Amino acid sequence: MEIFLYNYDEAKEKIGTNGGGFAAMNGRQLFFTWYGKSIFNTVRNREEYVGVHEMVHVITLNKLGPITTRFFGEGYSNALDGNYGSILENNRMIRLRNDSTLAKIKAKSRLLKPSELLYNDSIPERAYYPQIGCLVSWLFDTYGVGKINQLYAVKRKKIEEKFLQVTGDSFAEMERKYMEYRMK
Ligand SMILES: [Zn+2]
Asked: Crossing angle of helices 125-143/171-183, nearest 10°?
């Protein structure tokens, strides 16, 4: 695998983002913005220079197949990373945890249902990434990674049908359970 690091001031021009990085669809190349300063990750309790998000894309591309939906494609990366974005606090960069962001979203009554996360393509990244990360993490805990892996490469229009086959719950039943869990 090849890993490309771009300086912060050239990343936007060269790879189109200076907000982190991306994994090539061939699953063999990773492109990252190099900040030169570490960011503290409270989930892993360590300083990091690059997050695990793009690494997860590379692994899922090689092991589970191409990204067919944003729901699972970004869901896996955000679930395993556990963070989206970062803030400057007392002169130190801290990664923002998905669970903390979700609590704020919930307090503003902006929590999205699984069906919205599956079918609405216009949800901005800052709202989508933390929420899909929390949902997919809950799906792993509730149904087991082995079952959810079988849904990873399924096309969007087949997901509801396949979800029932694989888990024994309809997508709507899963949604009811998830929203009940989040509202507690
Ligand atoms: Zn991603």
From this structure: 100
Interval 94-138: pLDDT, tens: 999 999 999 999 999 999 999 999 999 999 999 999 999 999 999
Structure tokens at 139: 């799906």
141 phi and psi, to 5 degrees? -65, -35
- Of 73, 183, 154, the closest CA to residue 171 belongs to 154
The runs of H, that is alpha helices, within 82-124 are 98-107, 114-119
**In angstroms, what is the span from residue 66 Cα to ligand 1's centroid?**
13
Positive or negative: CA dihedral 90, 96, 99, 100: positive
Which among 135, 140, 155, 39 has a CA at the least distance from the CA of 92? Answer: 39
* DSSP letters spanning 143-184: H-HHHHHTTTT--HHHHHHHHHHHHSS-HHHHHHHHHHHHH-
Q: Tell how far the Cα of 74 is from the centroid of ligand 1, in angstroms.
A: 5
The pTM of this model reads: 0.91
Q: Domain map of the chain by residue range?
A: 66-183
Distance (Å) from CA 75 to ligand 1 centroid: 8
Long-range Cβ contacts of 103-110 (<8 Å, 24+ apart) = 105/130, 105/131, 106/182
